[in-house]
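User: Predict the structure for this protein chain, please.
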Amino acid sequence: MKDFPNDLHYARYEALKLRRHEHGILEVIMSGEGGNKSALATADERMHRELADIWRDIDTDPHTRVAIIRGEGKGFSGGGNLALVEQMANDFQVRARVWREARDLVYNLVNCSKPVVSAMHGPAVGAGLVAGLLADISIAAKSALIIDGHTRLGVAAGDHAAIVWPLLCGMAKAKYHLLLCEPVSGDEAERIGLVSLTVDDIDLVPKSFELAQRLANGSQSAIRWTKYALNNWLRSAGPTFDTSLALEFLGFGGQDVHEGIHSLRERRAPRFPDGAPF
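Assistant: Here is the predicted structure, written as structure tokens:
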């Protein structure tokens, strides 16, 4: 294992910790806010941008065959940073910038030629969940709690959900969990096909490295071309994703998101106004 803050390929990354391992395995760790290992990684301005960009750099990294993405501390990832969410609600320029990053996060991951393994434990929410569920092999610990919280915030579920949830677990389950923000446990996620595999918490990291090594030791052209072909299912849903993302960011300019922010800060149920323009 090697940390490489001076590696020119990844020198600009701060919110993501990057470690090289044998067999061409690159470990991507979403660190807790402020470097606090016990805190959940939340998608503040830097983390959100880095999660969008990292997949392009991995794609062109000649030393990496497979990437593992995981969180540290008590969970995989937290939701969006509320300070950033508030900026998006109040500033069109911020909203437009984050929309582009959200689009790039999905498409850069889908188009990354290297296989990606995700290892999710504890809460898995927000931008981190995008990578967790779009990974080529997704592993959830039994402690995992997958939550898409967009409608609880007062915006459409646009980050990644429309492009992949119906394909993975079917439309009925997708609507149930996305409209209601109903959590999905690790065991249930495997049962409905939302993730590839569920393991005991103690086995999560070892299993992710075991599968990554198998991918790294396989025929790179065969694995990458198979991924490319299979991801045409996701590319074909591109217009659906683009619409969902546009509607999500349209919502950041409306009233409901302000009530969503206040209710989260005050730790209470939201009281959204009656009526909707659509």
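Residues 8-202+219-266 form a domain with the 2-enoyl-CoA Hydratase; Chain A, domain 1 fold (CATH 3.90.226.10).
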